[in-house]
Amino acid sequence: KRSRRWMIIRKVSCEFKAPNYATVYADLKNKLFGQHLASRIILKSLNEFMSNDNPEKPLVLSLHGPSGTGKTFVSQLIAKNIYKEGMNSKFVHFFTSTLHFRHSSLISTYKSQLQQWIKGNVSNCERSMFIFDEMDKMHPGLIDSIKPFLDYHHKVDGISYRKSIYIFLSNDGAESIIETALDFWRTGRDREEIELKDLEESLSFSIFNNEKSGFYHSSLIENNLVDFFVPFLPLEYSHVVQCIMAEMKIRASKGNGKPNLDVAHKVASELQYLPKIERAFSSTGCKTIQKKLNFYT
């Protein structure tokens, strides 16, 4: 018996909404901190893709960077602004490598199942979205099975895949991103001076040649099918404080206390920072702030 997650859904109406880019911009500005590059790329690529009634290929984004920097949040943000039910939409499909693709002995089976899943769901909704988390833990070669759906094909077996969206999430490439950010920090340059050209080539190279990565020697990279490798920069102390204040505002809206800047600084100061001497960046980003905040509130 196939597990429920691999069953192909029956024909249903594809209920997506045209994104309100003012709302997307506001969310990125007010909820995603320290990520000028990611914000700019996401807003522009989503705008261009969703406003095109006849794109040449699907939108393919690969989000890379240290833990806790906003990769998962961005994928959720995109879903929220395209589908009425956001991540709960039946048209958003989320895969985690360590859960859905655990066993290396079943790669052939996974490839077949994944192809059938995408084919079945895109045939039901051409604006389907597929999110692959933990790409750095995926078995190399597996993701190449979806190459035909990401390529510049008018149709594959009678089905057009050009309006679907694929998002890959990975900590892979974090070291090169941190190193670049650290170079800017050490020389006193503003992190917002960092441009995509400073990171993209080294990022794609390190991912492509990492034997433990799901993108190792991947045909998706060889054939330039990833539209953007989106770098997420490590967060500085001030960004962590912003994260904490944002979380406190959410809690305040539910009647749980008020935002307190002193508490935010206290929580931020207790987190770990790297490198050990400079302590320039949070080692966990904003990932652990909720538990830390619970202690003080």
UniProtKB/TrEMBL annotation:
Gene Ontology MF terms: ATP binding; ATP hydrolysis activity; kinesin binding
All copies of domain AAA+ ATPase, residue ranges: 57-200
Name listed for the protein in its UniProt record: Torsin family 1
Main location: endoplasmic reticulum
InterPro entries: AAA+_ATPase, ClpA/B, P-loop_NTPase, TOR1A_C, Torsin, Torsin_1/2
Sorted UniProt keywords: ATP-binding, Endoplasmic reticulum, Glycoprotein, Nucleotide-binding, Signal
Positions that bind ATP: 65-72
GO CC terms of this entry: endoplasmic reticulum lumen; nuclear envelope
Family that this chain belongs to: Belongs to the ClpA/ClpB family. Torsin subfamily.
